[in-house]
Amino acid sequence: MTPAHSPALIDIAGTTLDAEDRRRLANPLVGGLVLFARNWACRRQLAALTSEVKSIRPDLLVCVDHEGGRVQRFRGDGFTPVRAMRELGRQWMDDALAATDAATAAGYVLGAELRACGVDLSFAPVLDLDHGGSSVIGDRAFHRDARVVTMLAKSVMHGMLLAGMANCGKHFPGHGFVKADSHHEIPVDERPLEDIVGDDALPYRWLSTSLAAVMPAHVIYPQVDSRPAGFSPRWLNDLLRDRCGFTGAVFSDDLGMAGARRLDGREVSHSQAAAAALAAGCDLVLLCNHSLQGGVVLDRFLDEIASAAGHRWRPDPDSDARRLALLPTAAPLAWDELMHEPRYRHALERLP
């Protein structure tokens, strides 16, 4: 494995870095950091944390799930509480063009506030369709209609781009039909391939030139493949890249979730899941919430990924280029400047 290939995204336990965090972030296998609510105290602390991360390695990708609604990790101290994306879908039904403007405003507010604190990327927007039965997706989805989802997601992505932030559509090819929560069990979607690609996966084809990154679902579609989508070359290479035309980075979803820990009928380790995801076509693999209790699991994970390189998975020479393409290319506005910026102030007025 070449030192330039950095597929692992890991987490930290607290609001500051300790010596073990710094050691892990300096590991050439690590490509980024995923932040959670436990890593947040206030804006000043968050900005100091992200600045220290970049001082260790400027190429590290600092990420967070910050979609609006119930999935918004940083709350208070000036962060705007953006409503769930379903509200934009409801607005669409009354005034489609006003809804697209509001969606751009939402993307800009979410992206600009994160960038002002040094965060590079939010795993957003959700492209799952609102079939009505999924508790884990629920109001995170824009709408049932793939056309509406596509237009509103594209508008959110435009707002993020204006803020200097890339995007990550999730969860390919669609998590909205199944009721099970892949955090705790393995959802199974029994529909045939053409039903899925002709409905749930349509936003990925229609946004193929706009999406910077994609995160596949920890869902098994047994009429297509016996493995979840994020571990399936057929889903990631044949369908996402070849059929949909996607050219950006592919992130695994969290490998600590139940939906990632059972492959081919057997329980697998985190590193075995990572090797399977990388071999299937993922560029980056996430292992979250394992920095606690000293981070022993993270150290074992990184050691075992290194040992598996060239054996259970082979580094794609293009993977790190796709990761680096997600890094912002311009310095963000400082928070105080952002608060007085006309575009930001107007965006706040346009939120649903």
Q: How do the helices and strands line up, and which of them pair or pack?
A:
Blueprint: E1 8-10, H1 19-25, E2 30-35, H2 43-56, E3 61-64, E4 66-68, E5 71-72, H3 86-94, H4 96-116, E6 121-122, H5 146-162, E7 169-172, H6 193-197, H7 202-206, E8 213-216, H8 233-243, E9 249-254, E10 262-263, E11 266-267, H9 270-280, E12 284-286, H10 296-308, H11 319-324, H12 335-339, H13 342-350
Parallel strand pairs: 1-2, 1-12, 2-3, 3-6, 7-8, 8-9, 9-12
Antiparallel strand pairs: 4-5, 10-11
Question: Could you walk me through the main structural features you see in this protein, from its secondary elements to its overall organization?
Answer:
With 352 residues, the chain is an alpha/beta fold. It has one domain: Glycoside hydrolase, family 3, N-terminal domain (TIM Barrel, Alpha-Beta Barrel), CATH 3.20.20. It has 13 helices and twelve strands. The strands form three sheets. An eight-stranded parallel β-sheet has the order 6-3-2-1-12-9-8-7. Strands 4-5 form a two-stranded antiparallel ribbon. Strand 2, helix 2 and strand 3 form a beta-alpha-beta unit. Helix 3 (86-94) packs antiparallel against helix 4 and helix 4 (96-116) packs parallel to helix 5. The mean pLDDT is 94.
**What general form does the structure show?**
globular
How would you describe the oligomerization state of the chains in this entry? single chain
The SSE string, one letter per element, is EHEHEEEHHEHEHHEHEEEHEHHHH
CATH topology label: TIM Barrel
Low-pLDDT segments, ≥5 res: none
Mean pLDDT across the residues is 94
CATH class: Alpha Beta
What is the straight-line distance between the termini? 48 Å
Largest sheet: 8 strands, parallel
Total E-strand runs? 12
* Radius of gyration of CA atoms, rounded to a whole number: 19 Å
Strand order of the largest sheet: 6-3-2-1-12-9-8-7
**What's the CATH architecture?**
Alpha-Beta Barrel
How many distinct helices? Answer: 13
Number of domains: 1
What is the structural class?
alpha/beta
What share of residues are in beta strands?
5-15%
Residues in helix, %: 25-40%
